[in-house]
What we know:
The structure holds 2 protein chains of 2 kinds.
Chain A lengths: L15 H22 L17
Chain B lengths: L7 E10 L3 H9 L1 H7 L4 E4 L6 E5 L5 E11 L3 E5 L7 H5 L2 E10 L2 E10 L5 H24 L11 H10 L5
Antiparallel strand pairs in B: 1-7, 2-3, 3-4, 4-5, 5-6, 6-7
Helix pairs in contact in B: 1-2, 2-4, 4-5
Amino acid sequence: VKLTLTHEGFDEGGKMLPAISKGWPAILSSLKSILETGRPLDVPRDALKIEEPG
Amino acid sequence: MIDIDNFRPDTVYTIYIASTPEKVWQALTTAEFSRQYFFGFAFEMDSKVGGSFIVRAPDGSRHIDGEVLACDPPRRLSVTWNVNWPGLVEKLGQTIVTYEIAQMGGAVRLTMTESHERELPEDILSGGRMGWPAILSSLKSVLETGRPLAIKMEPPLKMLAALKALGVRVP
């Protein structure tokens, strides 16, 4: 199954785009693991935080 | 020597895998794994900077004759990714594929970046943008379940037509 997710309408220079660019790959990867193996991925929430500049 | 920093990171794909960085590295660098998730193609790599990186088609021919640009197992690998179609490098410039691997709790984050020497049209980039999600999804399945995905991929028609229009001899 091919699943395509589109998330659009970002403000230029906003915080939303960098944040969801980290979040969605982890969430969709975990969804795939649940469907194929029955178990979610163990990704810590800290790993998804965006680094604040400076 | 190629300066990766001058290349444009046109396609980036990130996927998380229940595995170890060492296993992901092995999957990205050995024929034993690549044949399973990369449509039967075999990766042959000399694991050092300046070493060769070959992608061999199922019929034994060389699809890519690349060079290792960065090699820091099991964290970072960069290789030139110029398909051996006559005229391709002359028309498109060079392509680099970089993998970054990081442990994130109980999972591994793999990020693939396809970078180009020149600004390329969407149609040319569409081949990689179709292919990489399928390839890396199948790699994840191989590592987590032991079985690749059975994906029936359509040929990248837009990319092939765009290459043909540029005068590249596509198969």
